[in-house]
């Protein structure tokens, strides 16, 4: 009876696999060049992400993979997709036919048959030419599956590399480790302590579906602090071997519990369940478009749902940002929080298409603050990297509260307040906040707060505005006024002569010499800006005060002129490492500070210019080729921008609870909203009506959209 039920389930899921929206998704888009997309197998917001690694270091391989790389080192089980710094890559496995390796082998990599390589949501496959094996990968939320199909039966080998990881720098990442092998049960368990982008520990269990026939430890290399095990298996007349891998931030018992929670689930059922899970989420937006447009759209939507990753164990335990074990609020704890990127479009998109996740995102942010004293900036497996600037968690929280999500508002407000006023003991020098200088001068003087002073002043503004908004909603008028005033600090750095934000010292003197098109970055040529130049940061205040920004430029006509100049003034000698990538004039779509700027035409006297620029960005910087994303996907932010652009509206002020209208780039779309409601989008034209009522192009409210109905563009 069990076999019959399993067969029926597999057949039913197989039908979904054949007909579902996953057929439109190409996980290879963005894997060639600077997109840094990971093509492996995972489920939405999953903890594990098995995928091939072509190299273990270098900016190009921060996700482990490059489409044109000729060899595969093996298949590790945790990854971050679309990020610019390497980490994770835990527990690499590499299979081989026969007894090809010994403990003295130094190179376990293999060429692979590119024509055999396949990827779709929840499944990746490739044939290793040198090693005589086809590798298939799939996953559940907490368990990675690897299946090896060998060219012939008999004895086979699998390398289990605990030293491997995707490196931020050049040195060995592991500080110490432990492991145990249970040959009869076909299990390897262990814990690896590593110091890379973050300092963390990973406990794991690898369970094979056959006993281990022999084992050896590969000769260590200089600096190795974790073993590489060479395991042998006797397959008899069979030609397949399967491995399941579970990890935990807590301990080996947690990894084992994560594995045991899925029971006897087989590879094929797991793969079909992953496909069905992806189809359920992708179907929350159904578009009317040609096949190429569907491929572009659904591949982007897929990438937005890869992260953040729920890293809590099945029992809700997780290792928090200080390294101690905590109980995750509500049993979920999200990481791979690339907040400086994702607050702009990814998190607003989540409020529309995965609203059930939003309270968990907010509770994670607040739990982090309760451990660290401040809200997160950028986290890896729950640990803080202190990467990027500003306070990007604040608009994520304010957006959720503005849209009426059920979160602990008082705890959220206190977390926002502490983050915006208190020092950060133990944080690296670059991550300290210079509140005293901001309060004393009304901006960050570059001689008192050296490095990125203009960018930090501008970015603190959207955090202050978010705090003021939440305080106002909660009736804390005095607090709201205090932070609303501080949110206007950008005005003190606005240079009328160049119409840009310009550095100023503590004596009120402008930065000299000054060229507004010269970009700076703390990683290359430190200055007043963060991976950008003065033009690219000048529009940052419009993230929270577009009307004030418009008036400073002389009203709608002045804003229109400024935007026209912005999109036509060239960048001399563009450098992608300074954020100067995917350029239209000064607009740099390859880096996030520019992402809202084309949408600001809606506040000007020439909104149609914005529609044309958005369409140009889509046409020039996105495609369905492997190099179809120009610039890091940044944990889905580049893809979320594309999803909104194709639907015809965008959260240009991401904490406001409103969207700015553009023009749809699809014939029509239906969004499946909470409680079974639907929102249907259709048409093109200058006048937009929601359920028959005209909508202002700068104030499409989330609350109105959430009721569903028809959003129609026309005349």
UniProtKB/TrEMBL annotation:
The keyword Signal applies. InterPro entries: 6-hairpin_glycosidase_sf (IPR008928), GH-type_carb-bd (IPR014718), GH92_a_mannosidase_put (IPR005887), GH92_N (IPR041371), Glyco_hydro_92 (IPR012939), PNGase (IPR050883). Keywords: Hydrolase, Signal. GO terms for molecular function: carbohydrate binding; peptide-N4-(N-acetyl-beta-glucosaminyl)asparagine amidase activity. Residues 255-712 form the Glycosyl hydrolase family domain. Residues 24-248 form the Glycosyl hydrolase family 92 N-terminal domain. Residues 1-18 form the signal peptide. GO terms for biological process: carbohydrate metabolic process; glycoprotein catabolic process. GO terms for cellular component: cytosol. The keyword RNA-binding does not apply. PANTHER family: PEPTIDE N-GLYCANASE PNGASE -RELATED, SECRETED PROTEIN. This is Glycoside hydrolase family 92 protein. It comes from Inhella crocodyli.
């Amino acid at each position: 009876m069990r076999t019959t039920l399993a067969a029926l389930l597999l057949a039913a899921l197989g039908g979904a696999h054949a007909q579902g929206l996953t057929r439109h998704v190409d996980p290879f888009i963005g894997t060639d060049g600077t997109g840094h997309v990971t093509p492996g197998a995972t489920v939405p917001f999953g903890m594990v992400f098995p995928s091939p690694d072509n190299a273990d270091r270098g900016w190009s391989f921060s996700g482990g993979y490059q489409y044109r790389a000729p060899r595969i080192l093996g298949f590790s089980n945790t990854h971050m997709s679309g990020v610019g710094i390497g980490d994770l890559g835990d527990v690499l496995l590499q299979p081989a036919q026969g007894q090809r390796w010994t403990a003295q082998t130094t190179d376990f990599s293999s060429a692979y048959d590119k024509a055999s390589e396949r990827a779709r949501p929840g499944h990746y496959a490739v044939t290793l030419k040198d090693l005589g094996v086809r590798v298939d990968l799939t996953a559940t939320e907490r368990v990675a599956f690897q299946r090896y199909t060998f060219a012939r039966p008999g004895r086979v080998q699998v390398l289990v590399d605990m030293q491997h990881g995707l490196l931020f720098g050049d040195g060995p990442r592991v500080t110490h480790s432990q492991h145990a092998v249970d040959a009869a049960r076909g299990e390897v368990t262990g814990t690896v302590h590593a110091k890379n982008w973050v300092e963390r520990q990973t406990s794991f269990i690898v369970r094979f579906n056959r006993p281990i026939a022999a084992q050896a430890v590969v000769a260590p290399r200089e600096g190795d602090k974790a073993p590489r095990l060479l395991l042998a298996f006797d397959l008899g007349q069979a030609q397949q071997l399967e491995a399941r891998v579970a990890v935990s931030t807590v301990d080996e018992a947690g990894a084992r519990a994560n594995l045991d929670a899925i029971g006897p689930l087989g590879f094929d059922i797991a793969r079909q369940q992953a496909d069905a899970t992806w189809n359920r989420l992708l179907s929350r937006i159904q578009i009317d478009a040609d096949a190429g447009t569907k491929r572009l759209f659904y591949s982007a939507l897929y990438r937005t749902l890869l992260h953040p990753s729920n890293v809590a164990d099945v029992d809700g335990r997780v290792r928090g940002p200080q390294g101690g074990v905590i109980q995750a609020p509500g049993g979920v704890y999200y990481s791979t929080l690339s907040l400086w990127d994702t607050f702009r479009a990814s998190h607003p998109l989540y409020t529309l298409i995965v609203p059930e996740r939003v309270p968990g995102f907010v509770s994670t942010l607040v739990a982090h603050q309760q451990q660290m004293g401040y809200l997160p900036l950028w986290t890896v497996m729950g640990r803080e990297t202190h990467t990027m600037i500003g306070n990007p968690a604040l608009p994520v929280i304010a957006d959720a509260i503005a849209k009426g999500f059920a979160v602990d508002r008082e705890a959220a407000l206190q977390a926002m307040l502490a983050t915006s006023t208190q020092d950060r003991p133990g944080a690296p020098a670059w991550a300290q906040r210079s509140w005293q200088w901001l309060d004393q001068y009304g901006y960050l003087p570059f001689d008192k707060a050296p490095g990125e002073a203009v960018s930090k002043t501008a970015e603190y503004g959207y955090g202050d505005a978010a705090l003021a908004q939440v305080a106002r909603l909660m009736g804390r008028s005095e607090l709201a006024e205090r932070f609303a005033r501080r949110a206007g600090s950008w005005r003190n750095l606005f240079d009328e002569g160049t119409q840009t934000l310009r550095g100023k010292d503590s004596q009120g003197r402008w930065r000299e010499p000054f060229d507004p098109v010269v970009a700076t970055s703390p990683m290359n040529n430190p200055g007043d800006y963060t991976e950008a130049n003065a033009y690219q940061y000048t529009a940052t205040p419009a993230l929270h005060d577009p009307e004030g920004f418009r008036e400073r430029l002389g009203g709608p006509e002045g804003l229109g002129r400024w935007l026209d100049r912005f999109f036509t003034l060239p960048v001399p000698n563009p450098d992608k490492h300074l954020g100067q990538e995917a350029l239209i004039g000064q607009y740099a779509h390859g880096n996030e500070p520019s992402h809202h700027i084309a949408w600001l035409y809606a506040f000007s006297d020439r909104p149609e210019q914005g529609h044309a620029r958005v369409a140009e960005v889509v046409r020039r910087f996105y495609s369905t080729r492997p190099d179809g994303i120009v610039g890091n996907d940044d944990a889905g932010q580049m893809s979320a921008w594309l999803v909104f652009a194709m639907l015809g509206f965008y959260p240009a002020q991401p904490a406001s609870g409103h969207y700015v209208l553009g023009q749809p780039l699809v014939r029509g779309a239906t969004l499946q909203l909470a409680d079974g409601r639907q929102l249907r989008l259709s048409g093109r034209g200058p006048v937009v009506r929601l359920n028959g009522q005209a909508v202002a192009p700068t104030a499409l409210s989330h609350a109105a959209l959430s009721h569903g109905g028809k959003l129609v563009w026309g005349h």
